[in-house]
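SEVERITY: medium
COMPONENT: batch folding queue
REPORTER: lab tech (J.R.)

DESCRIPTION
The queue accepted two submissions in a row. Attaching both inputs and their returned C-alpha cells so the on-call engineer can compare them side by side.

ATTACHMENT 1
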Amino acid sequence: MGQLLTAALDAGATRIVVGLGGSATNDGGAGMLAALGVAGYGAGDERLAPGGGALAGLARLEGRPDPRLTDVELVAATDVDSPLLGLNGASAVFGPQKGASREDVLLLEGALHRWADVVEAHLGVAVRDEPGAGAAGGLGAALLALGARREPGIALVQQLVGLPARVARAELVVTGEGTLDGSSLVGKVVSGVAALAAAEAVVCLVLAGAVRVGRRELGAAGIEAAYSLVEQVGVEAALLRPAQELAALTTRVARQWSGPGRATVEESGTPPC
C-alpha cells in the first residue's frame, strides 16, 4: 500500500482514497509506513522483519512520512468501525477469519499494543481507539496516523455507482461475503446493501464462503436468506474450486428465486446457511 500511495503522489494526485476491506496481514500498517519512509527497528538496531508478529520486538521507529502527504486529501474508506485493539479489534475479530489460532491472536494483539505505543510516541498521534483503526489488519490505524479522514466505504461506493437507484428498480438483490459473521452486519458491504434493499422492500440474499450468523440476526439486518458455499459443497471443494462452485451455487439460487412462483427457503428445501 505504501508503494501505491507513493505512485499516486508521483502522479500528482491531490485526493487519495484507500479502500480498506479484507487483508492477509495484521501488521497495523507497518509495511505501508516503511514504504513511506518510517521504518521499524528492534532493540539490537536491526531492521524489523515484515509481518504482524515481528512488531512484538519493535523498539523504535525512524524516519518521517513522505512530506507530500501533507498536501493531499487522504481518505480511509473502511468497511468496519473496529478499533485497533481489544475484543472488537483487528486481531480478535479478523485474525480467526484468516486462520489465526487463539495463540496467534494473543501474539498479534500484544504486538499491535506495542506498535500503537511506538507509533504514538514517534508520530504524536493516538489512534488505537479510533473507529476504523482496526480495518484491514490495522492498516486503518496507520492511515489515521498519517492524517487520513475515515469514511464508511459502503456509503462512498454506493454514491459512486448509483446503487440506491439500482436497488429501487430491482426485484431481487444478491450480495456476497467471504465469511458472513457478526462483523459483516456492522458496516460492511453486506449490511449496507441489505439496508438499501430493506428500505425499498426488496428481497436481499447473501452468498458467502461460510455463514456464522443465524436467521434471527439475518432477518434483523434485512437479509432474507444466506447460502454457505462450504455447507453446500464442503470445505475441500470450496477451497479448490471456488469460482466453479460459486457459479454453480449462484445458478441454483437464481433458479430458486426467479419468477412469480419463486420458492421460500423452507419450500425449496435448500438450507439458508
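ATTACHMENT 2
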Amino acid sequence: MVIISISKLLLVVLGASVLIFARRFQTPVRLLNGMSTPIAVIVALAAFAMSLLWTVAPLDDALGSLVKYGKLLMVVLLLITIRDRREAIYALGSFAVAQTFLLASSWMLFAHLPVPWATSHMALTEYAVFSSYLDQGIISSVFAALCWHLREHAPGRFGRKLAIFIAFLGFTNVFFVLMGRSAHVVSIVLISVAIMWELPKKYRFVIVVLPLLLAAGLFFASSKVRDRLTLVQTEVSAYSTQKTAITSSGIRLDLWNTALQSIDEHPVAGSGVGSWSTQFNRLQHEKNPAHIDIAGNGNPHQEFLLWGVQLGIPGILLFIALLFSMWHDTLKMATPYARATQSTLIALAVASLFNSSLYDAQIGDFFCILLGLLLALGHKNLPESIAHPPYQQAV
C-alpha cells in the first residue's frame, strides 16, 4: 500500500507538471478531445463532493470515502501524461511485466517454491502473493483476457505464443489454484465473451448458453470451482432458513438487504458520501440493540449498491454512465485495443456485483490504472483526424 500510495502521488505530480508546462507538450484539451471518460469522471467526483453538504457520515468518513473515489483521477492523469503511442506501449508493457511476475509468483507458491517477496497472510494457504485471493483472482482473470486480446501485438518472434501461454496460465491459476468465487464468475464471463468475439456474427447468440456450459464443465473439472459453488448454495440456503449472517454469502446478502433499505429511505439524493457504515450501524441497531458497530469507510460488498446508498438511485445510474462512457471511448479504437478495454470494463461490472471493486484499495487501483493505460493506448492509435480534431472545431 505504501508503494501504491507513493506511485499515485508521483502520478499526480507528473500530471500537474504536464498541466503547468502544457506549452511544451500537446495541451490537455487536445489530448482529451472527443473523449467521454474525463467528463464522466469529473461529474462523478463532483457528485460525491457535493454530497458532503448532506452526508450523515462523520466528516472523517466522508472525506476518506471521497479520497478513495479520487483514484478515478488516475484514469484522466494517464490520458494526459501519456503523449503518444510509443509511451503508451512502454507503459502497458511495464504493466504486463509486473502482472506476469505476480502470476508467476502465485504458481511458485502453489508449487511450494520459496517466494520471499510474498507478503500476504494468505500466501502459503491460498497462494495469493500481495493481497487476498479475491483480489488476485480478479486481477489474474483480467490480465489473462488482456494477453489474449493483444496477442497479435506482443513483441518478439515468440510474442504471440507467449501471450497465449500467459493467458492460459492466468485462467488456469484462477480455476485450479485460487479459490475466489468472484474471480471464477469473472473468468467464465470473460472467456465466454472472448469466444463470442472469435465466432462469426451469426453464431454469437451462443453467448446466452456459453457461460452455463463453461460453468458446468468447470464444476466437474475443477475441485476449486465445484467446492466454492457448492458452498454458495449451502450458505444461501442456510441464510434463507435461519436469517443469520454468519457465512460469506450470508453476510453479503445481509449487507445488500441493508443497503436496499438505506436506498429506500433516501432514493433521490442518498445519504451522502461515506455514509454506508453510519447507515448500516443505525439500521442494525434498530433490529438488534446489541449490534457492534462496524468501522467507518466500510462498504456493502457491492459497488452499485454502495453508490446508491451514498447518492441514491441517481448514484447507481451515475456509476452505470461512468462505465458506458468508457465503453463509448472504445468504439473508435482498433479491434484488439477495444476488446481488451471492453473486457476490462465487463470484468469491473461483474466484479462490482459481488464486491466494491472500484472503492476498495488495490483492486480499485488496478482497474483505474489498467483502464487509463488501455484508453491511452487505444486513443493514441487512432488516426490523427479522429483522435485530435482541429482545436477550433472542437471548441
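NOTES FROM REPORTER
The first helix runs from residue 2 to 20.
No errors were logged for either attachment.
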